[in-house]
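User: Fold both of these, please.

Assistant: Here is the first one.
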Amino acid sequence: MSDQFTAQDYQFMQRALDLAAKGVYTTTPNPAVGCVLVKNGEIVGEGFHFKAGQPHAERVALAQAGENAKGATAYVTLEPCSHYGRTPPCALGLIEAGVGKVIAAMQDPNPQVAGKGLKMIAEAGIESAVNLLSDSTEKLNKGFLKRMRKGTPLIQLKLAMSLDGRTAMASGESKWITGVASRADVQKMRAKSSALLSTSATVLADNPSLNVRWEDFPNDLKKEYVKEKVRQPVRVILDSQHRIQPSHKLFETDAPVWLVSSEARDLANFPDFCEQIILPKENLLSELMVELGKRQINSLWIEAGKNLAGSLIEQKLVDELILYIAPKLLGEKARGLCSLPLTQLSDAPLWQLDEIQQIGDDIKLLYTPKGS
């Protein structure tokens, strides 16, 4: 515990983080932020940012506190914004409300903010402090923070496999390797993501919707969210040969579909929410990540076959490798996990295990590149 902060400071910032987490399925492209206003040891106002264009966490908390905001300490999970966007600056709102102190979990790396909010507060004569539970805030908003710092989304590659590293039978049969609980967890991960990437080969083979299926959503989250409030991710499909057609199930859900190829095609018969991204063949995957960053995609969830998985790993584009392992053995004739052009063991990419979780009868592992 830092000498700068008290046990009470940690308690109230944790409350702000718990509130912020309520927005992880809805806030993109904005970060998930929570705010708690405390006066004389009591919470007088609190809130979280729910959706882009709606009031930020500080404004929600200030509205709840009313006159009690004067002299209060504001605990906020990200530096208050200092610029006018779809909503006015939160730093200004805190100043106008007369808060006595502002504690931010971390500085906002967004170039439009990046210390300017805390500077505005300091110049108004209000005491401030930063870096309280910053690691927790980093984890909560890792996609937004990566986009702000590097211009590309957090790239999460999901693979499901048997104990012997197989993803499907030789015939292609793969429903279902993992159990019901793992499939519900995948729906949760899809819902957290800004976009979902797959290939035309997957679409032609399975004709999936690639959406968040509310009926498969974890039951504990269904108690907190109504179906209409869970945001559908953008579906990004690699379609170099223009094989995707309007008849595919992709277009039964009206979330955006972005078709990626190196040549333009006629989309006259496609729904209005379908558009194309034209990129050069050379370095297409890395160029796509830059383009998605420009389009405010914070996190990209990837569900694909062994060829795309191998290409992403080979090009060192994967930030998180997420493996769901089922307690089954499929045998040597079943399909492998990913295609990598390796000839010697020393060339094998190294990964670090960051998280392990049992989900039903399955195991979920989260790896990051070793040394990243």
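And the second sequence with its predicted structure:
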Amino acid sequence: MSDAVRQFTVGLDDDGIRLDRWFKRHLPDTSFTTVAKWARTGQLRVDGARAAPGDRIAAGQVLRVPPAEPAATDAPRPQKPRTPLTEDQIAFAREMVIHRDPSAIVLNKPPGLATQGGTKTHEHVDALLDALQFESEGRPKLVHRLDKDTSGALLVARTSRAAAFFAKAFSSRTARKVYWALVVGVPSIDDGMVDLPIAKQPGTGGEKMHVDEENGLPSRSRYRVIERAGNRACWVELQPFTGRTHQLRVHMAAIGHPIVGDGKYGGPAAFLTGGISRKMHLHARRIRVDHPDGGAIDATAALPHHFAESLASLGFEEAQGDALPLEEAKKGPPPKSVLKQRAKAHAKSMRKEHRGERRRRGGRD
């Protein structure tokens, strides 16, 4: 056993998770007690700074981990068996499948279903993957995530080889994801690039992100207006060119056009009257990624009921959105300086408002 200090770089799939969760995923033989002791004694560090088990980590950060401690016994640690799925759970999981081949499955994840488990989250896609094994020997593997309230196309690898291939596609940004959203108001520019760095918002325990020009990670999102409902709202196509937590939601709120139903980032202004659902209107409409055996996977996910109803009530037709061509990132429009300045001003006002709220509450978030 090596006695050397170890270093690990946080991958995109681990962006935003707690540090103790990272250990559970990647070093499962390291107990929480050991992780807590390393943190307490300053041996556990993230980008050179002392870290605690509950800290949330970001893609690209470097973890300094002490040498593995000798096991107290040679007996293997007992693995907690997964609870067998019910027939209803199996049927539900299989109904989500919109593409399947020997290497991959694409699901149409409904809103309200988390991708992975966490504190007080027991129903999630990861828990249903046993139902999607079909004729394969191994259990399918998640290779990216969608927010709990975001619906749409979610890629799952069926083999370890495919998982490594897809992970590289997402990290190198060759995989393309197209989202549809309803947003409040209408941007002054029909086709724009939001180029604003994003970081965890202080005082939220890592549960909320914000625009941070000094400490944020580079983040770029393209939007294209598909159709307008007067000046009240519009239907947009969104393409993320980086993979930050809540990126699309933060960027659209930062330019003054929050996604309809996204109270977390848009506040009360994110909700429309007139019978429009209060649910999140953000949907991963399409995913295109190279296939490990050649060719490409190109899957389109049908809209959830509430989103389809909202489009219809505003007089929009789905075919309008699918008519837009899928262009590569390098062919997209250059960042609009006016748009960026507007977003910076909006982000600055949001930070002032947040500081004012904390003062009114006596410093509590």
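Confidence is low (pLDDT under 50) at residues 329-338, 357-365.
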